[in-house]
Write a structure and sequence with these properties.
It contains 20 helices and 6 strands. The chain has 521 residues and is mainly α. The N and C termini lie far apart (63 Å).
Length: 521
């Protein structure tokens, strides 16, 4: 390995050591009980809650997947996806955060999303809790795998060879395992705060240097203006492919005439925002905020960070195409544009620190996913079937769950170097359709019933799988992002089944009214 690569690696290792130290720092506090380990005893301040929610949400997709889409096909898909995510972030904080914080505590101090569903509907047989926990186990394992793919891509670039891909995926998983096992939810949230700051710093500094070296906005516009539909938010560029790679003639990448970005595709991208209502790792931050009075400040921090980061990520993809017009010839390779820009702009040691932003993005999500899985398996499944189990036993099951999901996700990541963007979109749809409608109905409609909740959750999750793997193959209008039709179906099922079944008990309705009254007060 050349000296430059070693220096770059030193910057990355320094960051990794900090995350492990945070885990060690919180190890003592987080192991006092399951409420501390899973939700930090509802003690998150506004900065930690906001940055932890957003950093865990965006993942390695923000620095790799989104810039990669913008680099390869231009503004169309990247712009509308970012717009959907921003609007979804704002609506989630605006509509859900305060009421979920109050309601989760009112319902006998629920500390996980499945437990909230179960207690909200007085589900004595824990049907909702079990269904929700299984959905979390399935989709978060896929989600975590997408972040391990990002690990592998990062270090494959640093080492300039794919020979170390498998080793690095495993190493990244082990480091995550260490600080997540040790520090639990609090360690995850504090590292997420650090990671969120590093992510935004990395995005902004790379964008600033990219613009400077490309002649500013006018220079980038001139270089990209000749590519048909590349800068058109209502269009999409069409790379001319040859043997699976974009054709290059005399050093210039070849494109077709471009195409309109269909209204159906725009709705598909905007539908990403619907996913926020069902993201367990984001919703748990709302539940863990110290006080509802802190939510207003947290919301402002979160949406500001989200806007800046999403804008910078899309811009980096565009600047990257202007700076390296023919470097990356496939959609998957295009996800490395942030890495190439960073190593070209900065000395190796500083480049290692900036590149750690990708590692931060991936780790801030993976640790949250593993905590969510462990809480579901231990608190929502094990504790449901073994009601007399001691807290120490629940904690051990939680740790075992973290190990198991790490192993499973690693196996998925090693099975193929897939696109981070595509893996994330599938898992995002799963959570958004299974949980999103139910969260909204549970918080804002008193008439929703246990039967309606169960039917809606199942129909949303199952439809995502069917639409993605069967219906979408029909093409045309059926090619829409699976989250949108699945979300709509889940809403319809919840509404219809609830009206066809017996109204909730007076006690459930009193709880609903008390939470609503408390929010007004």
């Amino acid at each position: 390995m050349i000296i430059a690569n070693i220096q770059m690696l030193m910057g990355i290792v320094a960051y990794l050591m900090i995350t492990i130290m945070v885990g060690l720092w919180y190890a003592g506090r987080s192991n006092t009980g399951i409420e501390e380990y899973f939700i930090g005893k509802r003690g998150l301040g506004p900065w930690v809650a906001a940055m932890s929610a957003e950093a865990s949400d965006m993942s390695g997709w923000l620095l790799m997947g989104l810039p990669g889409v913008a680099y390869f096909t231009g503004c169309g898909e990247a712009f509308w996806t970012a717009a959907g995510l921003f609007v979804g972030t704002w609506l989630n904080w605006q509509l859900v955060a305060k009421r979920l914080r109050n309601y989760s505590q009112t319902t006998d101090n629920a500390i996980t999303l499945p437990e909230f569903f179960s207690k909200r509907f007085h589900d004595k047989k824990s049907v909702l809790k079990i269904i929700a926990a299984i959905i979390i186990l399935v989709f978060f394992s896929i989600y975590t795998a997408s972040q391990f793919v990002a690990f592998g891509k990062l270090f494959t670039y640093v080492f300039k060879t794919e020979n170390y891909y498998s080793m690095i995926v495993v190493l990244g998983a082990v480091i995550l395992l260490i600080y997540t096992l040790l520090g639990g939810f609090l360690a995850v949230c504090m590292t997420d705060l650090i990671q969120g700051i590093l992510m935004s710093f990395s995005l902004l500094v790379v964008l600033a240097f990219g613009l400077a070296f490309s002649g500013g906005f006018s220079g980038v516009g001139e270089r990209l203006g000749d590519i048909p539909r590349f800068l058109d938010v209502f269009g999409i560029a069409t790379p001319a492919m040859q043997n699976g790679v974009q054709a290059v003639t005399a050093g210039a990448p070849q494109f077709g005439s471009g195409a309109d970005y269909p209204l159906l595709s725009i709705f598909s991208c905007l539908a990403w925002g619907l996913g926020y209502f069902g993201m367990p790792h984001v919703l748990i931050r709302f539940m863990a905020i110290e006080n509802v009075s802190k939510i207003r400040k947290s919301k402002l921090i979160a949406i500001t960070w989200c806007f800046i980061s999403l804008t910078a990520a899309v811009a980096i993809g565009l600047v990257g195409r202007a700076y390296f017009p023919s470097l990356l010839g496939t959609a998957s390779d295009a996800e490395n544009i942030f890495l190439y820009l960073t190593s070209d702009f900065f000395p190796p040691l500083l480049a290692g620190v900036v590149i750690s932003g990708i590692l931060a993005a991936s780790m801030s999500s993976s640790d949250s996913y593993m905590i969510a899985v462990s809480s579901s398996l231990a608190n929502d499944l094990f504790k449901t079937f073994f009601k007399e189990a001691r807290e120490s036993a629940v904690m051990w099951v939680a740790r075992l769950a973290i190990v198991l999901v790490m192993i499973f996700a690693t196996i998925i990541a090693l099975s193929g170097n897939q696109s981070v963007f595509r893996i994330v979109s599938y898992a995002w749809a799963g959570f958004g359709a299974a949980f999103g409608p139910l969260v909204l109905f549970a918080l804002f409609w008193k008439r929703v019933t246990l039967q309606g909740a169960a039917a809606g959750m199942l129909s949303g999750g199952v439809m995502v799988v069917l639409w993605k793997n069967v219906i979408s193959k029909l093409g045309g209008v059926f090619g829409i992002y699976e989250l949108l039709p699945s979300f709509i179906l889940s809403c319809a099922v919840i509404f219809v089944v609830s009206l066809l079944t017996k109204a909730p008990s007076a006690e459930i309705q009193r709880e609903f009214d008390s939470v609503k009254a408390a929010e007004r007060g």
